[in-house]
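Q: What would this chain look like folded?
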Amino acid sequence: MVSLRLLYHHLLKWASFGLLSGLFVLGGCADMQTPTAEEAMRHPFGTGAPFTLGTTKAEILDWWGHPATVIPMGVDELGNIKEEWIYTGMLPGLPIDQEYISRTKHLYFEGNNLVRWKTEPWRADVQSVPVSKSDSP
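A: My prediction, written as structure tokens:
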């Protein structure tokens, strides 16, 4: 028969484990900030750039297709060809930053690998997406 002391010891051990686990899990969420409505609209979850440093040209071509412009930028000290690929924003008034739909992206390659990128700032002169006459009531 299990003694009360042993039962108490196991109960205390599992209660302590549960309490510490709960504090650990809840403490990890303390720094999370809810995005504003504007941030959520411009950057919906999962719509960040699909690439990181070192992404290959082939991977970019698979995701985004061919760029609108390729600018040769010479050769680096190791003999790698340097290029700037420009993906032009197609709908600059769209308030969502998804890939290059609304904002122009500049990708910089050395050899076959992505070394940096930049996104053009939001255009203040564009207020909204133009609506075609067939879409209006």
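The chain has three helices and four strands.
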